[in-house]
Amino acid sequence: MSEEGLKELRNKLDSIDNELLKLLNERMELVHQVGVLKAQSGGAIYRPDREKAIIDRLDSLNKGKLNRKAIEALFLEIFAVSRTFELPENVAYLGPEGSFTHQAAETRFGAMSSYISIGSIKGVFREVSTKKARFGVIPIENSSNGIVSDTISCLSNYNLKIIAEVILDIHHTLATTCDKVSDIKRIYSKDIAFDQCHNFLENFGLDEVEHIPVESTTKAAKFALNEPNSAAICSHVGAKMYNLPILFENIEDKDNNKTRFFIISDFENASSGNDKTSILAKLPNTPGALVDFLTSFNKAGINLTKIKSHIVEGISIFFIDFDGHKDDENVKKIFEKHKNSIKFLGSYVKEIDDI
Ligand SMILES: C=C(O[C@@H]1C=C(C(=O)O)C=C[C@H]1O)C(=O)O
User: Fold this and answer.
1) Above pLDDT 90, what percent of the chain?
2) I need a labelling partner for 5 at 20 to 30 A (CA). Which of 65, 151, 212, 301 fits?
């Protein structure tokens, strides 16, 4: 391509960017006004249902090169920045900076929100309950390791609502300052990350070296950086944070290793037309109680997508997900019929991905 041709195209791009900047600033002005109205009425800033409606509309109008994924990526970032102009809201998440939960939070709250790192799931619930943070982000389940008990217990004990789910592909790296695998004498990581990389460790003889479980994979990267002959199983982001060289990428056993996270807050979403609802069911310890309960869903034509039993403080409860919104007529009837058994946890936009 000629220098002239390149210059001309770049000039055109510059004027489009100028236009985009002007429009984005106009958008931020309007968003700020929405923020003022919400502040008067106490309304929540983050409305995943409204954001989904905007993306659906843009996707159906779209005639250009961008596909839905690209529209989503661009606009979710615009929404995240917009929200900080309405009113900066704190987001509490589990783990140190760079944790997978932090990464999940950033997919919804973008780079400009103010984040609070919290060391425990209970701590995240407490932070949101006491209104130090408007949102909390915690893991609920992983495709290899199953449900996160602490999250279920907290959903049972606190009166907060699930307002969104985020599903993230989980990839691990082996990061180390060692040049050769044979120099590695100990590996730091989170217990569940060791489990998820079992085959890799065995194949490289790294099941024989010392495995040291630590609180988070980010901490593992920090330890591995400061100690000779050590390595960390951590995320790409974790390794980059500490400038720890990555020796192997994607070392997880399953190539579809996913974690599902919940965003919790103190409000309930309106229906978006494509929702999922989560509940806890405490059923009487009598024969047929579970069958009777589940039959109601079947009769109402409600699609159950998940059911997990769990013990909280000695009592058996069921964590259940189904398609639909709390305000749907058939869901309302079930909630009425089983009101003594059900704790409503939230209705939220259903992600396309599932685990
Ligand atoms: C502006 C609003 O607040 C937030 C920001 C949105 C946006 O940038 O368009 C959409 C929904 C909310 O998460 C709104 O509720 O309309």
Assistant:
1) 82
2) 65
Ligand 1 center–CA 66 separation, angstroms:
22
Q: Is the CB of 109 under 6 A from ligand 1?
A: no
The residue type at 335: F
How far is the CA of 278 from the CAs of 108, 133, 262, 323, in angstroms? Answer: 20, 22, 11, 9
How many Å lie between the centroid of ligand 1 and the Cα of residue 30? Answer: 10
Distance CA 276, CA 12 (A): 44
Q: What is the total residue count of the chain?
A: 355
Beta bridge partners of 58: none
* Ligand 1 atom nearest to 38, measured from its CA: 15
In this prediction, the residues of the chain whose per-residue pLDDT falls under 50 are: none
Q: Which amino acid is at 309?
A: S
Q: Which domains does the chain have, with CATH numbers?
A: 25-86 (1.20.59.10), 90-169+258-349 (3.30.70.260), 173-248 (3.40.190.10)
d(CA 257, CA 220): 20
CB distance 265 to 135 below 8 Å: yes
**Given this model, what pLDDT does residue 190 score?**
94
Q: How many helices and strands (H and E) does the chain possess?
A: 12, 15
Q: What is the pLDDT of residue 1?
A: 64
Look up residue 352 and give its amino acid: I
d(CA 295, CA 301): 10
The interface predicted TM-score of the complex, written ipTM, equals 0.97
Distance 151 CA to ligand 1 centre (A): 28
Give, using CA atoms, the residue closest to atom 1 of ligand 1.
31
Is 83 close to ligand 1, i.e. is its CB under 6 Å away?
yes
Residue whose CB lies within 8 A of the most ligand 1 atoms, among 24, 28, 83, for a mutation test: 83
Q: How far apart are CA 121 and CA 99, in angstroms?
A: 13
Contact between 301 and 330 under an 8 Å Cβ cutoff? The reply is: yes
Cα(79) to centroid of ligand 1, in Å? 6
Answer whether 349 contacts ligand 1 (Cβ < 6 A): no
3-state secondary structure of 113: coil
